[in-house]
Amino acid sequence: MLNQIVLVGRVKELPAIRESANGNKYANLLLELDRPFKNSNGIYEQDYITIVLWKGIAETVTDICQIDDIIGVKGRIQSYSYEGKD
Hints:
Largest sheet: 5 strands, antiparallel
Distance between the termini: 36 Å
Structural class: mainly beta
Radius of gyration: 15 Å
Helix content: 10-25%
Order of helices and strands: EEEEHE
């Protein structure tokens, strides 16, 4: 099985370095991706994807990237499930 994805889009929020419970550094990056077609109103829509960056990559992106920079991200998709209290 192969789980690999490449996304190219604009940085919409500056990531901030955080530390996980086991001491690994990470950052969340919000990436805006333009859809390649117009909707019924003739407007291009966007998708917003939250990306988790780990360790050295998180530090590098946090230091270098600015809002509206176009970047490419290569990684894998991982989903989570959880149950809410209500």
